[in-house]
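Subgroup meeting minutes
Present: P.N., E.W., G.H.
Scribe: E.W.

1. P.N. recapped why we're keeping a running log of single-chain structure predictions: easier to compare across weeks, and new members can see raw inputs and outputs side by side.
2. G.H. added today's entry (36 aa).
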Amino acid sequence: MKNYLKKITIVSSLLVAPLLFTVPVLAVAPDGLGPW
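Output recorded in log:
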């Protein structure tokens, strides 16, 4: 059970890390570089 929880934590962190990285980049990106 503990290994299962560890796996979920690793997977969720892998999914969240790119979001945490792209949000600030899109926020400071100049016009035309971001999707909007």
